[in-house]
Amino acid sequence: MEGMDMDSTAMAQMGNMGQMDMPGGVLLTVPMSQEGSGTSWQPAVSPLYMKEYDTDDWSYMLHGAIFPRFTHQGGPRGDHQIDAPNWIMGMAQHLLDDNDEISFRIMMSLDRLTEGGDGYPLLLQTGETWDGSPLIDRQHPHDFLSEVSAIFNHKLAQGLAGFAYLGYPGEPALGPPAFMHRLSAMGDPDAPISHHWQDATHITFGVATLGLAYKQIKLEGSIFNGREPDENRFNFDTLRLDSYSGRVSYNPSREMALQASTSFINNPEGDGIDVHRTTASMIHTHMFDVNEWQSTTFVWGENYSPDHFRLESALFETAYSFSENLLYLRLEYVEKLETELGIADSLNPYAKVQLNECTIGYNGTMKKLGGLDFNLGGQLTLYSSLPTQYGSSPVSYELVLSIHPEEMK
Questions:
Q1: 249, 286, 252, 266: which is closest to 175 by C-alpha?
Q2: pTM of the prediction?
Q3: Residue span of the structural domain in which 21 resides
């Protein structure tokens, strides 16, 4: 009929209108689709891959992912392994009245069982320990309880709201949404090698955050435990509130999310060195149609320790989903200390190296069953500017089965 035609963007926006109408668990004034990990923001148009269950008084959400795979990390310092990185998250929200809401979250991972105590092989990755030794070229497993949090938010006026977030463990107001919660990274089972420069505080054993948002601008501050989780992945680490952070977030449109944050982190690696971490990020998501989207993330992060080091990182990742297919790309630049990689020059313990990597991947949906997508694919990683210990031109590859909830319509 004349006057009734719609372009594909409008149709896509209508397609996720139901999920956009759902109030967020951190702020009543923004939709759930705008909320990332912890109290971070992502674009409001972001599709949600989760299951929802409602009662008269409560709303319950469940989402997560598991990646059974074979990974081969190339070169003389590489390794190979069959494992299954995984996580699952449950949320419960309850409206107390028109202006008040309380929410609870729990996030869990069986990484310790599916990967082992020293995690999985990942060339150039550093951070945390196993058997008292630093992990090098391996990604540590995540804790069984990765978030146990409660959030209270109150609408103060039209477009104005405040919130309080308590987690043990939880995530402070620092950095972009954690990598496993970013749409642009949903196909890649690996943590970025810049993880400990950008979003590694997504598991913190003790955090308290207060925030205030007016329309699409949010200010928040946290006090938290700066120490990285210990090697026992099934316990609660000692509660400390010895670090602090602040973050400003701005969503200029429904397709864009910006943030800048800075922090003081007390002794994160247990080596007696305190770190000032500063980050900035941009996430852009565009819905071409109800079943087609592209999401792109850029993150800059810096770790700075007076009298010791200043180390930069940059990450670019993008994912394009179309007709049950997903193409994705991740580019990273990271400065790391030679000591972190176990190749230190004893004359200069703070000598640094500049690392570059590129990962490209694909997966396609094989089957939909029980509200889950079963996707099969693989990825290839190339490197440049590596120390000689890594060989002239290592190549890494993975064959991956990814399983996650279907997109919520």
A1: 249
A2: 0.93
A3: 8-405
